[in-house]
């Protein structure tokens, strides 16, 4: 069944471990602020035992999120073939997107402040179909620039024949 979402014989590229590190940092900051603050408010406004319950829930959610981030990070991959680009991701709901080079209209590279700090960017492919969700997060800046240039050149070459 896995070959349905990751065809064998392809040279699959993975995303940078910095994506996992960034997402874990965000999880730590959010739960590190929201968890204790909620526990203090629950303890002051309701009862001390509720503060303990809220803090325990925050710890469980943190551990679960830490584990899920790793699984999600490992699920991302892409492969460049002769006529198209394959992008796969997802843990519970797997997804494989096949984008023919001739259908690409433009390639978008984005990086927010935290992504730039971690040295990663997201490459997003735009086609005539708005339903095409072909984006690859967590690429190193050099990898994103190289992929952007290769895809743009291949898209131009394939679209010229239409």
UniProtKB/TrEMBL annotation:
Signal peptide: none
Statement: the UniProt record of this protein carries the keyword Membrane: yes
Record Pfam families: bPH_2 (PF03703)
YdbS-like PH domain location: 73-151
Transmembrane segments: 21-41, 47-69
Keyword Transcription in record: no
Matches recorded under InterPro entries: YdbS-like_PH
Keywords per UniProt: Membrane, Transmembrane, Transmembrane helix
Name the UniProt record assigns to this protein: YdbS-like PH domain-containing protein
Species of provenance: Thermasporomyces composti
